[in-house]
Design brief:
Number of domains: 2
Helix content: 40-55%
Largest sheet: 5 strands, mixed
Distance between the termini: 62 Å
Radius of gyration: 22 Å
Order of helices and strands: HHEEHHEHEE
């Protein structure tokens, strides 16, 4: 089978080992990427709301790395939220121009510092395009 594949690719005899190694590496890289992306996306989409109306995405952030200015903080969180919504939308073959993804995904922001102190509390969320702080 390998010989017929190499012949179909018009590989010279002195190149056969290198081409076979490249094909093998490509196969294993593809397997890794497929496994990694499925695992990452399933962890990313780990929860639905109780009424099954929303996909809940929990973004965990360090408060130390967030801007102190309220306007900059709002802009940074909205950017991250729409980045997450875009990733979800593309997984379903949609784009951000289609507002259905914005209405189907709720992004909750949780701080690492709060998690360490035992308070797994949401400090902000983007729901239906509106960012609210708690």
């Amino acid at each position: 089978m390998l010989r017929s594949l190499l012949a179909a690719l018009n590989v010279r005899p002195e190149e056969q080992i290198q081409v076979a190694l490249m094909l093998t590496i490509g196969f294993f890289m593809g397997t890794f990427i497929a496994t990694f992306s499925v695992t990452a996306e399933s962890l990313f989409l780990s929860q639905l709301s109780d009424d099954h109306r929303y996909i809940i995405v929990r973004a965990k952030l360090s408060e130390k790395s967030l801007p102190k200015d309220h306007g900059e903080l709002k802009e940074a969180l909205e950017f991250k939220a729409y980045e997450a919504i875009g990733a979800i939308a593309s997984g379903f073959g949609r784009s951000l121009e289609d507002k259905s993804a914005e209405h189907a995904v709720r992004v909750e922001f949780i701080s690492y510092e709060g998690m360490m102190s035992g308070k797994n509390k949401v400090f902000a969320e983007l729901n239906d395009g509106v960012l609210t702080f708690h």
